[in-house]
Amino acid sequence: MKRWSIGLAAAYGLMGALAGAEPSSTSRESLEGLPQKGSRFELKANPQSEQLNASLHASIEEDGARIETRGIFRIGDSPLYYHLEIDLKTRTYKATKKEVPSEWLKGQTGRKVPDYTPNAISPGYWYAEGKIITEDLPQIDLATTLNYVLWYVYTDGSIGISNVYGNCTPYNGTGQPYPVDTHWYVNSCTASYYNPWAQQINGSYYNWDWGWDDQATTTAHSLGIQPNNDGTFYYWDSYAHAGEDSYLLQVDLFLNGYQVY
């Protein structure tokens, strides 16, 4: 039974290829100008976007688009929290800053702001955190993948990992108002390690009760953090949305770090 009906062709015409997936009811005419499957290309900031110190790319896959971000975060800078919209037809993105919830910054209260000298060794105890969040048009968080790393930098420049952690949290129909009874679930939540210091958290989520109960909507996240010894960390993330009405899904990205001591 369809509990919430959206004019897909009309919405797709307004929204473009926001997350790259192709709803089955979309007309051929509304798909004109989309990149070909198998292509990969850089996304540029549109004139209304915040400028990000990162590179963004899109890969067109069989069931949608995968969006990838790579960058470097300097600890001591303000937390980075932005809403990301993708236009595949124009090969652009729009990043809009969001206000960071105060509860996300509790551990940072009273921490000193480190002095930063590029490429200089910065001994101490450091913390880095990232979140990638899939949300819908009302900006309800549907799936959140978290990654954090704690590490030491010794005076000789070597790095020692103190703690790593990650989790995957789906929207379960409670805690936030929502206009329909819908639920998200974790399909898998795993960690990958690419060297002694870099951790990547991979989250896969699904939903069966958004619209037609025989059609799934899915999202997949990957979020990696690699600590450096100079008061910075590298980050990389990717996400892909597929299935029913998946082109309506959008993403937020949060990055933060501080020197513990």
Structural description of this entry:
This protein has 261 residues and is mainly beta. 3% of the residues lie in helices and 49% in strands. The protein has one helix at residues 8-15; strands spanning 40-45, 54-61, 64-74, 80-87, 92-97, 124-135, 141-153, 159-170, 185-193, 199-207, 217-227, 232-243, 250-259. Strands 8-7-6-13-4-5-1-2-3-12-11-10-9 form a 13-stranded mixed β-sheet, with no helix packed on it. A hairpin with a 5-residue loop joins β6 (124-135) and β7 (141-153).
Strand order of the largest sheet: 8-7-6-13-4-5-1-2-3-12-11-10-9
Uncertain residue ranges:
1-31
Form type: globular
Protein structure class: mainly beta
Spatial separation of the terminal alpha carbons = 56 Å
Radius of gyration: 19 Å
Approximately how much helix is present in the residues?
Answer: under 10%
DSSP summary, beta strand count: 13
Please state the average pLDDT score: 81
Please write the string of helix (H) and strand (E) elements.
Answer: HEEEEEEEEEEEEE
Give the helix tally.
Answer: 1
The fraction of residues in strands falls at over 45%
Largest sheet: 13 strands, mixed
Can you describe this structure in just a few lines?
The protein has 261 residues and is mainly β.
List the helices and strands and how they pair.
Layout: H1 8-15, E1 40-45, E2 54-61, E3 64-74, E4 80-87, E5 92-97, E6 124-135, E7 141-153, E8 159-170, E9 185-193, E10 199-207, E11 217-227, E12 232-243, E13 250-259
Parallel strand pairs: 1-5
Antiparallel strand pairs: 1-2, 2-3, 3-12, 4-5, 4-13, 6-7, 6-13, 7-8, 9-10, 10-11, 11-12
